[in-house]
């Protein structure tokens, strides 16, 4: 029996390598490889070590098929992408009502590092701005910071199916230059929105941002959300079904920093970006996209990643509110019944 | 639309490279733009048939797979070597026959996906009508890949028991990979055998079409080693058999 299984699994991986959908992704890679606009994040020196030519695209479908082109093994720090997933864990730890009492879900239109709290409720506006993310990390349960951090790492492992490490130089840089985040935390402490173990929480927050991932991990993470919280390859549950919609909703409204409105209008795939150069994008019920290219626009979003998501959304009708028949039928391009692009 | 044709056999020594060279040349002589890729990285050889001196070539398929060079720069125009003129073109992408290069491929492997991407790029850049892939015998990841991307898979077998069994396995794999079109070719057939009966028997055994039956003869072996047979002896019945196979590919 195992032979038959091996044959099927090899045949399926070969089919994924040669399917018209992967050829389509390869064409996108070729199309945007020479697109050199944007700049590498430089607010901490460690991030400037990234190479501008790095570029990877990975798509994982909800039935676990994986398509990858370019540098999908290259590791980089997850940065703000972690915020969406930690929000999910906070919801599992405390439930919707309590989490919402500490962090709002309203897009700000302000930059990610803005120091603003809701004047009436004193809450940070949403879990995707730094203040809201720190308040969210503060909610993660555990007897001590080691246990809390381990719970975070275990959660990411459920999403990606593999162990993750923390980039220590990036973590230390973030920590030593993180006074703005520190100031925000004390402001929130003043309003009683976070606990008093501020330095512990900030350490975990800086560490969560320094987790090393690759484009494949990001695709697995969003495919897991697209698949109702269950990793489509390992079949392990990463997030309680009830909270999948919460995570995807805040990605949709706040995931692309202060570019979220335009992203929703033009692309319409709930997504979260990080200044390390990653984007994870969720087409619910269909697939997850992970892209990596460290050249960022002024808002901190990966420019090649935006282009890839824009093309995918348009060509396969992945915009959440699309009702028109797309140019290309996703299922047919994946199984090869359409799109023989030789 | 461009067509990709893989030529494969389960075992070595079936005459795969000779067959590929003759078929590709036959098609190119009809005025098509044709590419041939030697993916037999562990034991390359087809360059000899096209009189391409590998000593004079500094770039091979290996360099593309190592990321040193775009694939189109590893393609050599061998049209003149085999008398292809006018609109027709024949390009060859050879594999390195340097021991070090072969060892590097065996030791480190390579990303099989690059084959797929490279073939597509080659077809686009050289505006090919046909791409022929000469494979390494047996089953491997690259064999699977070339089967999966082919519009036509040609399986060569000799009329003996080992080839029969191996071909059955290969056909099984090809069907699992949802190959679009499969053609069988029987090579090295003794003159004493009844060719029509053999053809019928093979077709019944595998439920696939036999596109051509080629004889075994010492003359042929000797003549073939000197270059592309069908160029030198265009009127020979063997050359006519290549025309028949070429026609069946074009009809797919």
From TrEMBL, chain A:
Keywords: Acetylation, Hydrolase. The keyword Acetylation applies. It comes from the Bacteria. One of its GO terms (biological process) is glutamate biosynthetic process. Signal peptide: none annotated. One of its GO terms (molecular function) is glutaminase activity. Homotetramer. This is Glutaminase. It comes from Lyngbya aestuarii BL J. The lineage of its organism: Bacteria, Bacillati, Cyanobacteriota, Cyanophyceae, Oscillatoriophycideae. The gene is glsA.
């Amino acid at each position: 029996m195992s032979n038959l299984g091996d044959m099927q699994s090899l045949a399926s991986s070969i089919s994924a390598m040669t399917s018209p959908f992967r050829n389509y992704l390869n064409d996108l890679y070729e199309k945007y490889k020479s697109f050199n606009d944007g700049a590498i994040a430089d607010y901490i020196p460690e991030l400037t070590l990234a190479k501008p030519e790095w570029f990877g695209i990975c798509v994982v479908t909800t039935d676990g098929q994986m398509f990858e082109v370019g540098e999908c093994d290259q590791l980089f720090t997850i940065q703000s992408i972690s915020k969406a997933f930690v929000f999910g864990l906070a919801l599992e730890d405390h439930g919707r009502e309590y989490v919402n009492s500490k962090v709002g879900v309203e897009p700000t239109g302000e930059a990610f590092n803005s120091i603003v709290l809701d004047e009436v409720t004193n809450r940070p506006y949403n879990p995707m701005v730094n203040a809201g993310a720190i308040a969210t990390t503060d909610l993660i349960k555990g007897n001590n910071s080691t246990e809390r951090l381990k719970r975070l790492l275990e959660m990411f492992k459920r999403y990606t199916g593999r162990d993750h490490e923390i980039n220590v130089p990036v973590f230390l840089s973030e920590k030593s230059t993180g006074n703005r985040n520190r100031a925000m935390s004390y402001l929130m402490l003043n309003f009683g929105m976070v606990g008093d173990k501020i330095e512990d929480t900030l350490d975990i927050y800086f560490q969560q941002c320094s987790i090393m991932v690759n484009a494949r991990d990001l695709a697995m993470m969003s495919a897991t959300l697209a698949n109702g919280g269950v990793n489509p390859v390992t079949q392990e549950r990463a997030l309680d079904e009830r909270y999948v919609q919460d995570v995807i909703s805040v990605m949709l409204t706040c995931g692309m920093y202060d570019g979220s409105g335009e992203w929703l209008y033009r692309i319409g795939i709930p997504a979260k970006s990080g200044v390390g150069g990653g984007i994870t994008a969720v087409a619910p019920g269909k697939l997850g996209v992970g892209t990596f290219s460290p050249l960022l626009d002024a808002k901190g979003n990966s420019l090649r990643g935006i282009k890839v998501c824009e093309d995918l959304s348009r060509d396969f009708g992945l915009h959440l509110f699309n009702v028109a028949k797309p140019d290309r039928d996703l299922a047919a391009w994946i199984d090869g019944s359409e799109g023989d692009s030789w | 639309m461009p067509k990709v044709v893989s030529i494969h056999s389960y075992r070595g020594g079936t005459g795969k490279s000779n067959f590929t060279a003759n078929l590709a040349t036959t098609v190119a002589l009809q005025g098509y733009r044709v590419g041939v890729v030697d993916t037999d990285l562990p034991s390359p050889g087809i360059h000899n048939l096209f009189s391409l001196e590998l000593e004079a070539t500094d770039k091979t398929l290996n360099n593309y797979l190592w990321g040193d060079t775009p694939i189109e720069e590893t393609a050599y125009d061998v049209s003149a070597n085999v008398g292809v003129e006018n609109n027709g073109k024949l390009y060859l992408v050879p594999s390195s026959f340097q021991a070090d290069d072969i060892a590097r491929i065996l030791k480190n492997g390579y990303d099989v996906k690059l084959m797929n991407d490279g073939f597509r790029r080659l077809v686009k850049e050289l505006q090919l009508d046909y791409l022929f892939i000469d494979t390494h015998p047996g089953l491997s990841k690259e064999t699977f890949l070339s089967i999966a991307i082919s519009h036509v898979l040609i399986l060569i077998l000799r009329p003996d028991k080992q080839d029969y069994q191996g071909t059955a396995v290969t056909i099984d794999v090809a069907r699992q990979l949802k190959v679009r079109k499969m053609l069988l070719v029987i090579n090295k057939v003794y003159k004493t055998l009844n060719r029509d009966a053999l053809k019928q028997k093979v077709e019944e055994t595998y439920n696939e079409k036999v596109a051509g039956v080629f004889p075994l003869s010492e003359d042929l072996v000797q003549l073939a080693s000197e270059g592309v047979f069908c160029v030198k002896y265009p009127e020979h019945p063997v050359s006519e058999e290549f025309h028949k196979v070429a026609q069946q590919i074009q009809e797919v």
